[in-house]
Amino acid sequence: MQEVENIISELFKVSISKYLIAVIVIVLAMVINKYVITIIFDYAIKLVKMTKNFADDSLVRALEKPIKLYITLNSVYFSLKIIDFDGLNINTVTSDRLKKVFIVIVLCYFLYNLTLENSLLYTRMHRNDRGNTIVFPFISIIIRLIIVVIGISCIAKEFGFTGFITGLGISGVAFALMAQDAFSNLFGGMIIVLDKPFAIGDWIQTTEVEGIVEEITFRSTKIRTFSMAIATVPNSKLANNNIINWTQRKLRRIHFKFTIEHDTEIEKIKSCVEKIENVIKNHEKIDDKLIIVSFNELSSYGFGIFIYFYTTEQDYVMYERLKQEINIKILEILREEEIELMFLNFNFRGFEERAGNCEVECTELESIKNITEEERGK
User: Fold this and answer.
1) Sheet with 203-205, side-by-side order of all strands
2) In 46, 91, 123, 351, which residue has its Cα 20 to 30 A from 340's Cα atom?
3) How far is CA 138 from CA 112, 184, 222, in A?
4) Which of 142-146, 244-248, 330-334 has the highest mean pLDDT?
5) 234: closest CA among 209, 271, 264?
6) Per-residue pLDDT reduced to its tens digit, 244-300
7) Alpha-carbon distance 255 to 294, whole Å?
8) Distances (CA, A) of 24 to 10, 31, 75, 85, 99
9) What residues form DSSP beta bridges with 310?
10) Could you tell me the pTM of the whole model?
11) 3-state secondary structure string, the chain?
């Protein structure tokens, strides 16, 4: 407590002019960052985009924020020099020691930025294999964790806390290993990464959730459902679940059935089936390996026409438009052949007759009831 009071008293001894100069230095650094450095890097990004090499793009993007941070921290360092911070006689904290810490922070920040989504590693992994969209987050997290640990260790060593940090790290690892749920989620995440059942952006379906994969971490996977909500599923649960990846399919199925009038002529049925099959076979978006157009049902309701085929169209909106296009073509063929679709119609006349009979019966019952009550009164 006495040491704090001594520091405060020493700070009050510094002239206001020095404090003003220190503030001006910091403000000047902020202005340089906002206008000068930003303009320089905007120009540098335009230049590196002209090259075919992606490494320089990643380097420039990763450098911008660390350089701005370095300028800001250096302004703090010079401000401490101006107010004679070392004269406060704080044993563990000196301006030179702070400068070393600032360099470590900036360097770690730069290396940290190299593992982001605009990095060279990210681009190469995506170029080689689309499934690496799910591998990259894990590798990125591991690299970032190593960078943070190294940075903290360097700073702790500078202030003499190496033993404490080492002991904290060992106990933290032991605690993590004892946490069964956390470990199982980590193991489940590694299984997902190695097995690659899906990638970021894939449409997947499990027994409990369906949607688009947005993010995978060590603990869980985030899925955007079609109601636009985020479902967070633990990796251990997801790894042991049945997963349907709808994105990885190459074809989408279309199948339906319609019923025509039972008095339709056989020749018209043959012609209709043949024309529908030709329309489907000649469509560029329909796979011709399996196309079924079949008159496959005879019933008291009518004659059933069954249609079954696959399309190469993957986009859902275009998929629905394709179904609409096929349906319109089928309707045109039916109209051309003068074939009527069969609908389930009620026999309203018979229904009215039965309702009338019911009304007569109810009237007769009511009369009998009245006669019985009169006899009882007598």
Assistant:
1) 230-234, 220-225, 210-216, 203-205, 244-245
2) 351
3) 14, 15, 14
4) 330-334
5) 209
6) 998 888 899 999 999 999 889 999 999 999 999 999 999 999 998 899 999 998 888
7) 12
8) 21, 10, 9, 17, 19
9) 253, 287
10) 0.49
11) CHHHHHHHHHHHHCCHHHHHHHHHHHHHHHHHHHHHHHHHHHHHHHHHHCCCCCHHHHHHHHHHHHHHHHHHHHHHHHHHHHCCHHHHCCCCCCHHHHHHHHHHHHHHHHHHHCCCCCCHHHHHHHHHCCCHHHHHHHHHHHHHHHHHHHHHHHHHHHHCCHHHHHHHHHHHHHHHHHCHHHHHHHHHHHHHHHHCCCCCCCEEECCCCEEEEEEECCCEEEEEECCCCEEEEEHHHHHCCCCEECCCCCCEEEEEEEEECCCCCHHHHHHHHHHHHHHHHCCCCEEEEEEEEEEEEEECCEEEEEEEEEECCCCHHHHHHHHHHHHHHHHHHHHHCCCCECCCCCCHHHHHHHHHHHHHHHHHHHHHHHHHHHHHHC
Cα separation, 222 vs 214, whole angstroms: 6
Count of Cβ atoms closer than 10 Å to residue 7 Cβ: 13
Q: Which two tokens stand for residue 268?
A: 């018209």
Which residues are bridge partners to 215 per DSSP?
Answer: 222
Here the contacts of 361-370 (C-beta below 8 Å, separation 24 or greater) are: none
Could you tell me the pLDDT band of residue 346, with boundaries at 50, 70 and 90?
very low
Encoded tokens for 35: 């206008």
Q: How many residues does the chain have?
A: 378
Extract the tokens encoding 236: 């251990």
Tokens of 58: 């990643």
Token pair 């290993």: residue: 177
Closest CA to 87 of 10, 195, 31, 3: 10
Q: How far is CA 263 from the centre of its chain?
A: 54
Amino acid at 365: L
